[in-house]
Write a structure and sequence with these properties.
By secondary structure, the protein is mainly alpha-helical. The protein has helices spanning 2-42, 48-66, 71-95, 102-122, 128-140. The model has no long low-confidence stretch (mean pLDDT 88).
């Protein structure tokens, strides 16, 4: 479970970074295009640049309104939950030799499993490419 939490946490952190980047990009690039096209019209260039300015402005406004970065906070929250659970699992493993009874250990395991399932049931799935990137980072020792 600890390994699963580690890989899930890193995958969700990777997804959050990607969502932030693309969320900003999908608003910023059309806004720049709108500004440039609008300036060209103002400087006397062909009026068809006005259509390009309006369309790019519409794209930027739509991206901003729909919350192009809305997934990033959700991904970060999931990553933090998995990280916290990973540490709890590591602590439980370390403390398992000091457990009062097998029943106490079983109860701890059941509680950790319930926490894991609660996190996983509420997560928005991330694309496989983020899991692949997370796996490479973990295996290379970068994390």
């Amino acid at each position: 479970m600890g390994e699963s939490c580690k890989y899930n946490a890193q995958a969700y952190f990777e997804a959050a970074k990607s969502a932030e980047f693309w969320g900003k990009t999908i608003v910023f690039i059309p806004a720049i295009l709108s500004a440039v096209a609008g300036t060209l019209v103002a400087l006397g260039w062909d009026k068809s640049w006005g259509v390009a300015s309006a369309m790019a402005g519409l794209m930027a406004a739509t991206g901003s309104f729909l919350g192009a970065e809305r997934k990033a906070p959700s991904y970060k929250e999931s990553a933090r939950k998995y990280t916290t659970l990973k540490h709890e699992v590591q602590l439980a493993v370390t403390m398992s030799s000091e457990a009062d009874s097998p029943d106490a250990l079983r109860q701890t395991l059941r509680s950790l499993t319930d926490q894991y399932q609660a996190i996983a049931s509420r997560d928005e799935p991330v694309p496989n490419r983020h899991f692949d990137k997370a796996s490479k980072r973990i295996k290379s020792g970068a994390v």
